């Protein structure tokens, strides 16, 4: 292998990258857009849910209950209905995602009988929102009930008999979904860019007819492959660090583990994504076909890697399929290093899996691509 020829191919590819505005947008802008969208828009934190209230009691006790729910971070009392029909319309039109009905006599029952009931309606069309709102509605109501008991009996509830459960949240005490999503986004970008750009860069040579010119030159297939993929390895690591820096300084994602170890294992994962790009380039005859094949290959990775949804909640069949998704192991490594600060001893099995996937896929893809060139 000639380093002179290899350097020439690498230089040629870098020149093409910086001369193509569309490629530059894909490389540098799309990761930032994805980061902003996933950091802000895609969130499991349900707060300030639009809520309607039908207060049929209109007493100081009912107003106090409404204030309690308003003071919580979960509900935002935006609408006050004057009838059951108006309340139903607000929920049906999705203007209110939750609704509370305080019946007439609520204040009397609370004062005389020490117990009162209210109805809480939740829009269940979105189960993720509904489950959080359901738990929050119960939690706020129970907390208010304890306050009433404390005032009536002048007793500290903490001194009453019972079990005092004191939960503690490790690694992400504020339970911010952005701290969960952004580290995973680094792995997704690393796979998407290297696979997508590697496949397109080689297929573009086929489409333009320049691949034949390269084949008849003294350049060997291995030199061509290395020369074409090396610039995109550099670009992928730049985007990886770009997302990491923005995540740290903009979204406040802490990095508790070793950054060199994170970069080393990310480089190990590149064997897999580069192999996928080479394999796609050997199959595709046009850039459009390469893009479709890339989406087809990467689509399962998004949903079966634990990027959005926990693997433990999936059916057993999908959990079994996820075992052959390399991104699954990378996400476990990234989240472990960034959020938990663990070392290689904890995810040694995941690292071995990445090595096996990388060697097998890259070897098979290189042989397939070399045979295509010949």
Radius of gyration: 28 Å
As a percent range, the share of helical residues equals: 55-70%
Termini, distance in Å?
Answer: 17 Å
Order of helices and strands: HHEHEHEHEHHHHHHHHH
Tally of discrete structural domains: 2
Q: In DSSP terms, counting alpha (H) and pi (I) runs of 4 or more, how many helices?
A: 14
- Extended strand count: 4
Write down the oligomeric state. Answer: single chain
Coarse shape: elongated
* Portion in strands: 5-15%
Derived from helix and strand composition plus strand pairing, the structural class reads mainly alpha
In spatial order, strands of the major sheet run 2-1-3-4
Brief descriptors of the model:
abc type-2 transporter like fold; 4 strands; four-stranded mixed β-sheet; elongated; 374 residues; mainly alpha
Précis, in short:
With 374 residues, the protein is mostly helical.
Structure write-up:
67% of the residues lie in helices and 6% in strands. The chain is mostly helical. The chain folds into two domains: 3-42 and 179-373, no CATH class; 49-159, 3-Layer(aba) Sandwich (abc type-2 transporter like fold), CATH 3.40.1710.10. Strand 1, helix 3 and strand 2 form a beta-alpha-beta unit. Helix 2 (21-41) packs parallel to helix 9 (221-249) and helix 10 packs parallel to helix 14 (348-373). The longest helix is centred in the middle third of the chain and has 32 residues, at 177-208.
């Amino acid at each position: 292998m000639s380093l002179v020829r290899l350097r020439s191919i690498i230089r040629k590819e870098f020149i093409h990258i910086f001369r193509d505005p569309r490629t530059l947008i894909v490389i540098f802008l799309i990761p930032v857009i994805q980061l902003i969208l996933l950091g802000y828009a895609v969130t499991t934190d349900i707060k300030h849910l639009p809520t309607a209230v039908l207060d049929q009691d209109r007493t100081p006790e009912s107003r106090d209950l409404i204030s309690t729910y308003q003071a919580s971070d979960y509900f935002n009392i935006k609408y006050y209905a004057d009838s059951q029909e108006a309340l139903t319309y607000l929920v049906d039109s999705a203007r209110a995602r939750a609704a509370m009905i305080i019946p007439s006599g609520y204040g009397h029952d609370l004062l005389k009988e020490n117990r009162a009931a209210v109805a809480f309606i939740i829009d269940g069309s979105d189960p993720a929102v509904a489950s959080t709102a359901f738990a929050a509605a119960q939690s706020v109501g129970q907390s208010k009930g304890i306050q009433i008991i404390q005032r009536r009996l002048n007793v500290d509830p903490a001194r009453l008999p019972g079990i005092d459960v004191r939960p503690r949240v490790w690694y992400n005490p504020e339970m911010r979904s952005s701290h969960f999503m952004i580290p995973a986004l680094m792995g997704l970008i690393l796979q998407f860019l290297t696979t997508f750009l590697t496949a397109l860069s080689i297929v573009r040579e086929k489409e333009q007819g320049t691949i034949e010119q390269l084949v008849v030159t003294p350049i060997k297939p291995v030199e061509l492959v290395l020369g074409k993929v090396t610039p995109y390895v550099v670009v992928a690591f730049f985007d990886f660090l770009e997302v990491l820096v923005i995540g740290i300084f903009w979204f406040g994602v802490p990095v508790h583990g070793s950054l060199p170890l994170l970069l080393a294992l990310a480089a190990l994962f590149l064997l897999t994504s580069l192999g996928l790009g080479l394999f796609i380039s050997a199959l595709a005859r046009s850039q459009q076909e390469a893009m479709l094949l890339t989406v087809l290959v990467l689509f399962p990775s998004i949903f079966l890697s634990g990027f959005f949804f926990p693997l433990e909640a999936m059916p057993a069949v999908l959990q079994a399929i996820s075992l052959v998704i390399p991104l699954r192991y990378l996400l476990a490594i990234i989240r472990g290093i960034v959020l938990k600060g663990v070392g290689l001893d904890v995810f040694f099995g995941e690292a071995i899996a990445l090595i096996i996937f990388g060697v097998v896929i890259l070897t098979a893809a290189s042989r397939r691509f070399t045979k295509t060139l010949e």
